[in-house]
């Protein structure tokens, strides 16, 4: 049996606009998905998980098939079983589906003795995302594969970002499940209805991401907080927030977070709050009091999938 592990992620700045080619900053977090692959007597590909739904397992099945086809692997009279175990909350904007896909791809490639380049792993991961929503930017499989913090641009080269000061993020899950595909489509409809307005928002998002990147590199954490707040304003503007997310975002700020925002597609799922050093426990407990279903103190996962 082979084993592989892949991290989930938070988007620090730039979700949704990244689908349209704008840059985004994304960090891998130490919530992980594990996959175990083995040969079995039963023919075909078999994916098992106690927590991940049938719907999310289908893309994995399809990409493993693609992997076997692309490498001309014939299983002859045996099959492959992949068993998945994930700590990442599902449908919450933390990259669970991409991490599960990446871990599965790696576990199967180890089982078959295939050496895949990072970009091959990512492109299979993107194929899996395409089953979930038609327009993935590729940000989730990319960060899960690389780990650390990245400046990501669709179809472009990724750039590693090295923070000069440690950053403490608190993640709060609203407990509202949502579909990334539906949220991406909703934003697509708005952008086609008001293209010139949307173009202005894109431009603003690009400036926010650039300023946030400088703030991370130079250790200006107050400025980073302001960029998170501006980013959240744009997410509200494009209609991916709701009353519960707004409540969590504002409670975090009221109890001293330097900035807070939705992370991921919105409509539910998680928010992140940037805490002053040593203040994350207090912010986390206020978020629970305000109705968050779960909170996590996010540590950056420096190492990507392996
Ligand atoms: O699946 P989520 O909620 O982590 O969202 C991913 C980020 C989006 O920008 C909304 C979609 C994408 O493919 O980039």
Write the layout of secondary structure elements.
Blueprint lengths: L1 E12 L10 E17 L3 E6 L4 H17 L8 E8 L9 H16 L6 H15 L6 H8 L2 E4 L6 E2 L7 E6 L6 H14 L1 H24 L2 H17 L5 H12 L4 E5 L6 E6 L4 H10 L4 E5 L8
Parallel strand pairs: 3-4
Antiparallel strand pairs: 1-2, 2-4, 2-5, 5-6, 7-9, 7-10, 8-9
Helix pairs in contact: 1-2, 1-3, 2-3, 2-4, 3-4, 5-6, 6-7
This protein binds (3R)-3-hydroxy-3-methyl-5-(phosphonooxy)pentanoic acid (PMV).
Explain this structure to me?
The longest helix is centred in the C-terminal third of the chain and has 24 residues, at 195-218. The chain has two domains: 2-160, Ribosomal Protein S5, domain 2; 168-298, Alpha-Beta Plaits. It has nine helices and ten strands. With 306 residues, it is α+β, with helices and mostly antiparallel strands. The strands form two sheets. Strands 1, 2, 3, 4, 5 and 6 form a six-stranded mixed beta sheet that branches.
């Amino acid at each position: 049996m082979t084993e592989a592990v892949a991290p989930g992620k938070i988007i620090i700045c730039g979700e949704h606009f990244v689908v349209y080619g704008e840059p985004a900053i994304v960090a891998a977090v130490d919530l992980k998905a594990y996959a175990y692959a083995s040969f079995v007597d039963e023919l075909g590909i078999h994916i098992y998980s106690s927590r991940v739904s049938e719907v999310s397992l289908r893309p994995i099945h399809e990409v493993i098939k693609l992997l076997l086809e692309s490498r001309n692997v014939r299983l002859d009279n045996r099959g492959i079983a992949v068993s998945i175990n994930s700590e990442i909350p599902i449908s919450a904007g933390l990259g669970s589906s991409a991490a599960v896909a990446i871990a599965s791809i790696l576990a199967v490639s180890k089982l078959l003795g295939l050496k895949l380049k990072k970009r091959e792993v990512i492109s299979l991961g993107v194929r899996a995302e395409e089953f979930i929503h038609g327009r993935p930017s590729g940000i989730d499989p990319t960060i899960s594969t690389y780990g650390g913090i990245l400046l990501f641009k669709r179809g472009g080269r990724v750039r590693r970002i090295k923070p000069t000061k440690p950053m403490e993020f608190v993640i709060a899950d609203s407990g509202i499940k949502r579909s990334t595909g539906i949220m991406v489509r909703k934003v697509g409809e708005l952008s086609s209805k008001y293209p010139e307005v949307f173009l202005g928002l894109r431009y603003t998002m690009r400036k926010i991401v650039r300023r946030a990147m400088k703030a991370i590199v130079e250790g200006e954490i107050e400025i980073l907080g302001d960029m998170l707040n501006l980013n959240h304003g744009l997410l509200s503007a494009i209609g991916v927030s709701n009353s519960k997310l707004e409540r969590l975002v504002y409670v975090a700020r009221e109890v001293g977070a330097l900035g807070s925002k939705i992370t991921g597609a919105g409509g539910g799922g998680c928010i992140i709050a940037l805490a002053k050093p040593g203040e994350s426990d207090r912010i986390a407990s206020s978020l629970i009091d305000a109705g968050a279903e779960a909170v996590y103190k996010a540590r950056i996962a420096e190492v990507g999938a392996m």
